[in-house]
């Protein structure tokens, strides 16, 4: 499926990583929509990177904020293309806005960086979001727009 979301360059920083990271990825609910599943891995990797680094914290935090904003936008573009029902789509988009605002507040509270406690909170927020809202969407896609799924990867 051609993807015209050209202004967004996924980082795929997880590619080629040691096997130990696979445990982190196995906690991410799988949607079966490859581009989005890959972005979820990137997001988790950003959080691991932020947790481990002592340098460039502000720079990585900003990159993470930009990446997640693009990620929400990417999902929303898919939903629009798939004619995902308005009600469900609206609730999902509002949830993206809430998530973005929670993260923004955590970043501002600590002067532009994410402290360990905030990183843990965000990880839980993301995994919960994926398990509820993204999964609900993916199940609808499976039933109604199977062409958007990539069953073999
Ligand atoms: Fe989402």
What's the shape?
globular
Determine the mean pLDDT: 88
Count up the helices. Answer: 5
Give start-end ranges of low-pLDDT stretches: none
CATH superfamily: Hemerythrin-like
Profile the largest sheet: none
Radius of gyration: 15 Å
Q: Compute the separation of the termini in Å.
A: 14 Å
Structural commentary:
This protein has a single domain, classed as Four Helix Bundle (Hemerythrin (Met), subunit A) (Up-down Bundle), CATH 1.20.120.50. It is 67% helix and 0% strand. It has helices spanning 21-26, 34-52, 57-81, 86-109, 116-144. The two termini are 14 Å apart. The mean pLDDT is 88. Bound molecules: fe (ii) ion.
Write the layout of secondary structure elements.
Layout: H1 21-26, H2 34-52, H3 57-81, H4 86-109, H5 116-144
Helix pairs in contact: 2-3, 2-5, 3-4, 4-5
This protein binds fe (ii) ion.
Residues 75, 92, 96, 129, 133-134 line the site of fe (ii) ion (FE2).
